[in-house]
Design goal:
Blueprint: E1 9-13, E2 24-26, E3 30-36, E4 45-47, E5 55-62, E6 65-70, E7 76-78, E8 81-82, E9 88-90, E10 96-99, E11 103-108, H1 110-125, H2 132-142, H3 155-172, H4 183-203, H5 210-217, H6 247-273, H7 276-307, H8 325-340, H9 343-352, H10 354-366, E12 371-378, H11 389-393, H12 405-409, E13 414-421, E14 426-431, H13 432-447, H14 452-455, E15 473-481, H15 483-486, E16 491-499, E17 504-519, H16 522-529, E18 546-558, E19 565-573, H17 574-578, E20 587-589, E21 593-594, E22 605-613, H18 615-623, E23 625-634, H19 636-653, E24 684-697, E25 703-705, E26 708-710, E27 718-722, E28 727-735, E29 743-757, E30 763-764, E31 771-774, E32 781-784, E33 790-798, H20 806-809, E34 817-828, E35 835-846, H21 857-860, E36 864-866, E37 869-878, H22 913-943, H23 951-954, H24 957-969, H25 986-990, H26 994-1006, E38 1010-1015, E39 1024-1033, E40 1038-1047, E41 1050-1054, E42 1062-1067, E43 1072-1074, H27 1077-1083, E44 1088-1092, E45 1097-1101, H28 1105-1115
Parallel strand pairs: 3-4, 27-35
Antiparallel strand pairs: 1-2, 1-11, 3-5, 5-6, 6-9, 7-8, 7-10, 10-11, 12-13, 13-14, 15-16, 15-23, 16-17, 17-18, 18-22, 19-20, 19-21, 19-23, 24-25, 24-28, 24-37, 26-27, 26-36, 28-33, 29-30, 29-31, 29-34, 32-33, 34-35, 37-38, 39-40, 39-45, 40-41, 41-42, 43-44, 44-45
Helix pairs in contact: 4-5, 4-6, 10-13
Length: about 1100
């Protein structure tokens, strides 16, 4: 499109942004008439539509200045206002013009834009001086109305929508800038409108007094005068003369206009004060966008599947479900109710992680760290991980990782770990993720204890404690209901202080919530002034948009002993009073008092709060509670009592002696015995070694493995391939778990995601990211060896041309590699779904006749030529989370053996009693707070006197009593309670027949695990290497000489000392090494020792006594020499 860039034009705008500015009308010097398309009168611009007249308007261009003239009986808008015929309106660049009802234009004057740019450049160059012309130009620019342009919205679309909006506001008599008016002006305007409405209602009964009262309405601010120009939309521009005979009709028109504006103002004020509707619209928009993304993802998957040639006939039709705002609120409410019932899931977490807590306590006892770990329940929200604000003000949180991010972000109750730190006299809480991280650091202390060069880099105290430890520990909280505040009632109550670790009351305090002031919103302030609810016994709730001011006072603290605490303070969080909707968290602490120099009654708190009562805040006030947190410096007696309480609570939770079968009641044929570990369903950890080979077609017709070039122990290797040859992939999986990991076959192998790794280590993405399924051959082999290990071998056909990647077709440059993602699925009998493995494979494409790499380079450098690629995977099998309460005891791992647990004595981690205590604590806390809140409401009703009722209602005592009895007898909450039990039922515990054992085994086997695998990083550091004899077949007494390399936490086995062909990998976590002379005599080998792991055992023989002692010390550094 070509045009003169210096000419004045009008661009036509369209509702479709793609059609905007496609039609341009040039305004030549002189007059340019706008008329109707089918008119015979001459016109330069012809438009269609019923609202366009034959001579609608005309543009006049004189010396570069363009004016717009409207003609009679023509609808013409300029910047949203209808212009008056017979007057000239000067146009500036960006002005919006609407002709009729559907034709929108944007005026553009290039010379004006160029002058503005020159003036802006001059002002930037001469920023110090300013001329009168500049101020005049700035004044001219300021006369142009602001355009609502935004960088995130299309300008054409904005012009169309904003112009239509301006025209609609102008036609309705509304001011687009009403939202910017101050509250004071809005209140005055609303009062005037209300007085006019009252006058109109009164005139309907007394028409003779309408004139006199109408004169008094505007007397407060003066009578409006007529104006020749445009007036503000909120004023009256037509003032009838007192001598006019049509004064009544003029007043009615004014009242009608004000009445319409009043309705509009009420709607706007309501939208400003109440944000519930806006929140609903936002929720609906988010839900629709989510459904749209689901549809897009679904379509993308279908298109990708169709591109790969997969069958999509079984794909079901997917229709997005759009919910209304009310449906979304109901769904959210139901989901929140269901999420609140977490007792069963928390019990599962406690039982399945008991062995982890036990291992942490074993290491603490062995290293004499004076710290113990046990389970607790962390409440969601502000009580998930409470920390003292006094410590925060001391800048302790800037010196280390004080806050646990997992606990800080949780909104629902979850299982956590209570740390009783007797060395630093503190109690704090860790999440289970934090405990796992700290436990790995604890293991490092024992794993590298024999390597001072590495152990010196590990802190001996950091894994066991918080760094830094808090000075004040959380000891309990008092819970107060906020319901009286929502009803504009002050309250004073004595609240118990509950310890969240023992679920018992340790003291009490007096809490006073006193209403200071309630500033209502303008809408509710006017409605409340005319309300006639004088007979209501209880004041109304705080309306949305109001400002609530109250004073919180906490004093008269009792029960905290100086034998347990050295100092104490309390604090209140802003989120506790306003709910989770608050943007920034603020904590208000009291002064800390020393028990040696102060009385407990000196512990006080008083602070005034002023909050804006939005819809979310009011919901929290009606339904929520505010915890008042108490912190103290602990004494050793308190820490010891916490440990003893855990032990006594677990003893109470054990079955009573009379429930256990006595020797007199046990049949002679039944003997009491320890329950088999096979009856329990716990998380399993397995290590799988994957050996990969790529075979190419040889001249003999056989498929031979290609060499793998490795640059060191860290490098897994790179396959050297040739162009244009048929290939096969051989995948061999090995596991020392044997039949504990009962795999059956490889169900799928996929290859794809081709990338280039250049010589500088940079990875270049490729367009071939799709994983292509490779056809599997039927001859898969599953082998269970006599040494307890298992092998699985699968073959797949690979045609590299299906990837359509240039990287696999051309020769790879020197020092470059082609990376591919290999993924395969293994079917395991004990898993619900196949186990997924994934890793990267590196290849290098050579000429077809290129020779294989020479082995001579392996002698002069660190490079090696390997026959296969080796990768170690860690497979985690987790039990499903959905099971019946009768099977809950099978998840218990507290009886699982941990090396060194003898140091714990009779100590055991807490069981499901910790969940029961938390449920009891929540019930007691909220019931106590609700009773105090109801007492306040009833007292308010009693003080206002009984409501006035008729005699017939007062004497209906029988019906009222029946209704009260029905409410007392009605059961609320769950109809059936889930009983959590850590031990099996009595019938299952006493029945030990073969039939019951078979049924129990069948029920255990029916439980399917969920799997997760990850690649174990490779390491080049080794502790020891050397030759050992290994018993591979105990029945035939066959020993093999192998090369062992200890790279923690694995022990690698090779056929030869060149470490080229790997045969097995052993996991050393929880290893136990034993030596017995009887075992040497039985096996007929000297210097023999046994290596016990979590999944298997190995009999090894050293060459001499010195190597025997060295290997045993390196394999188990914590073992005490005999």
């Amino acid at each position: 499109m070509l045009r003169d860039l210096t000419s004045v034009v009008v661009w036509i705008q369209n509702e479709d942004p793609l059609m905007s500015e496609c039609l341009i009308y040039q305004l030549k010097p002189g007059q340019t008439m706008v008329g109707r398309l089918d008119s015979e009168k001459p016109a330069a611009i012809r438009l269609s539509g019923e609202s366009i007249v034959e001579e609608h308007c005309y543009f006049e261009n004189a010396d570069g200045k363009v004016t717009l003239h409207a003609l009679p009986d023509a609808v013409t808008f300029l910047n949203g206002r209808q212009i008056t015929p017979g007057q000239a309106y000067k146009l500036r660049t960006g002005f919006r013009i609407i002709l009729g009802e559907h034709h929108v234009f944007r005026f553009n004057n290039p010379e004006e834009v160029r002058k503005q740019r020159d003036r802006a450049a001059a002002r930037s160059n001469l920023s110090i001086s300013a001329t009168a012309a500049d101020f005049a130009a700035a004044a001219e620019e300021s006369t142009r109305p602001g355009s609502p342009t935004s960088s995130s919205v299309d300008l054409n679309d904005v012009d169309w929508n904003f112009a239509k909006r301006e025209a609609a506001f102008a036609r309705l008599g509304l001011d687009p800038a009403l939202d910017n008016l101050p509250d004071e002006d809005l209140n005055k305007l609303f009062e005037k409108i209300t007085r006019v409405k009252t006058l109109r209602d009164h005139n309907a009964k007394r028409p003779e007094s309408s004139l006199s009262q109408a004169d008094d309405i505007w007397s407060e601010s003066g009578r409006p005068t007529a104006s020749d120009g445009l007036t503000d939309d909120t004023s009256v521009d037509v003032v009838p003369s007192h001598d006019s005979p049509d004064i009544a009709g003029s007043l009615d028109s004014v009242q009608n206009q004000l009445e319409n504006q009043r309705h509009e103002f009420e709607q706007r004020l309501q939208s400003i004060s109440e944000s519930a509707e806006a929140e609903d619209i936002k929720a609906e928009k988010d839900q629709m966008e989510f459904q749209l993304n689901l549809v897009k993802t679904r379509m993308k998957k279908l298109l990708d599947a169709r591109a790969r040639g997969e069958d999509i006939s079984e794909e079901l039709q997917f229709e997005p479900q759009i919910y209304t705002a009310r449906q979304l609120r109901l769904i959210r409410k139901v989901l929140d109710k269901w999420r609140a019932h977490r007792a069963f899931s928390m019990a599962e977490v406690v039982l399945s992680n008991a062995v982890t807590v036990k291992e942490a306590n074993v290491m603490s006892r062995e290293l004499h760290k004076d710290v113990s770990y046990n389970f607790t329940i962390a409440a969601g929200g502000s009580l998930s991980a409470p920390s003292s604000a006094v410590d925060t003000m001391a800048a302790l949180d800037q010196l280390g990782d004080v806050a646990d991010p997992v606990l800080a972000s949780t909104t629902q109750p979850c299982v956590a770990v209570k740390v009783v730190d007797k060395r630093n006299r503190a109690i704090y809480v860790w999440s289970l993720d934090r405990l796992q991280q700290q436990l790995q650091r604890m293991r490092n202390l024992t794993s590298y204890i024999d390597r001072p060069a590495y152990s010196q880099h590990f802190s001996t105290s950091e894994p066991f404690y918080n760094n830094p430890t808090p000075e004040y520990s959380f000891i309990g909280n008092a819970l107060v209901s906020l319901a009286p505040l929502a009803r504009r009632l002050s309250s004073t109550s004595t609240v118990p202080i509950f310890c969240r670790y023992t679920a018992e009351a340790i003291g009490s305090c007096r809490v006073e919530l006193k209403i200071a002031n309630v500033v209502l919103s303008p809408k509710h302030a006017n409605s409340s002034s005319t309300s006639t609810r004088a007979s209501s016994p209880v004041p109304g709730t705080v309306p949305p948009g109001s400002k609530l001011s109250f004073v919180l006072t906490v004093d008269t603290v009792k029960g905290l002993s100086h034998h347990d605490f050295a100092a104490a303070h309390l604090q209140v969080r802003l989120s506790s009073l306003m709910g989770p909707s608050t943007s920034a968290e603020e904590v208000y602490p009291s002064n800390a008092i020393e028990f040696d120099t102060h009385y407990l009654s000196d512990l006080k708190f008083r602070r005034s709060f002023s909050i804006a009562a939005s819809s979310k805040v009011l919901t929290h006030l009606r339904q929520g509670y505010a915890p008042i947190e108490f912190f103290a410096r602990l004494e050793p007696t308190y820490l010891e009592r916490m440990e003893r309480w855990d032990e006594m609570r677990d003893q109470k939770a054990l079955p009573r002696p009379e429930l256990s079968p006595t020797p007199e009641t046990i049949p002679p044929s039944v003997q009491l015995m320890r329950r088999s570990e096979n009856d329990f369903v716990t998380e399993q950890m397995h290590d799988v070694v994957a050996w990969l080979q790529i075979c190419e077609l040889a001249p003999t017709g056989d498929y031979t493995p290609v060499p793998v070039m490795s640059r060191g122990n860290i490098d897994p290797g790179c396959f050297t391939l040739h162009q244009g040859l048929q290939r096969r992939i051989v995948l061999t999986l090995s596991s020392n778990s044997g039949k504990q990991l009962p795999w059956t076959e490889v169900t799928k192998i996929r290859l794809g995601n081709i990338r280039l790794l250049d010589a500088k280590g940079r990875v270049h993405e490729s367009s071939s990211k799709v994983l292509t399924t490779l056809p599997l051959m039927k001859d898969q082999q599953v082998e269970w060896k006599p040494d307890g290990s298992g092998l699985l071998t699968a073959h797949a056909l690979w045609d590299s041309s299906v990837h359509d990647s240039i990287l696999l077709n051309k020769v790879t440059a020197a020092h470059n590699r082609v990376l591919m993602q290999l993924e395969w699925l293994v079917d395991v009998e004990s898993c619900a779904d196949p186990v997924r493995f994934s890793m990267d494979v590196a290849v290098s494409i050579q000429f077809r006749d290129a020779r294989p790499p020479s082995r001579f380079f392996s002698f002069i450098g660190s490079s090696k030529i390997l026959p296969k690629m080796s990768t170690v995977f860690n497979v985690r099998l987790s039990p499903p989370l959905t099971r019946s309460p009768q099977e809950l005891w099978r998840l218990d791992t507290s009886e699982k053996y941990v090396r060194g647990e003898e140091t714990l004595g009779a100590w055991k981690p807490r069981g499901i009693s910790v969940v029961e205590d938390y449920e009891k604590l929540v019930t007691m806390e909220r019931r106590s707070a609700d009773v105090q809140a109801i007492r306040v409401v009833l007292n308010a009703m009693g003080n206002r006197g009984p409501p006035s009722q008729s005699g017939s209602l007062i004497w209906k005592s029988e019906e009222l009593s029946k209704k009260a009895l029905d409410l007392w007898q009605k059961q609320f909450g769950h109809k059936g309670q889930i009983v959590l039990s850590q031990t099996p039922a009595d019938s299952e515990r006493t029945s030990l027949s073969s039939t019951s054992k078979t049924s129990v085994a069948a029920s255990v086997q029916s439980l399917k695990f969920t799997s997760q695998s990850k690649v174990v990083p490779r390491t080049d550091n080794y502790t020891r290497r050397g030759h050992l004899l290994m018993l591979v077949d105990a029945n035939e007494n066959i020993w093999e000489r192998r090369w062992f390399v200890l790279r923690r936490p694995y022990l690698h086995m090779y056929k030869h000392s060149d470490e080229l062909e790997e045969v097995a990998v052993v996991q050393l976590s929880g290893v136990n090494v034993e030596r017995s002379p009887d075992m040497e005599a039985l096996l007929g080998k000297r210097f023999t020792f046994t290596l016990f792991t979590a999944s298997n055992s190995y009999a090894l023989s050293a060459p001499n006594q010195k190597d025997l002692q060295t290997w045993m010390a390196n394999l188990d550094p914590t073992r005490v020499p005999s």
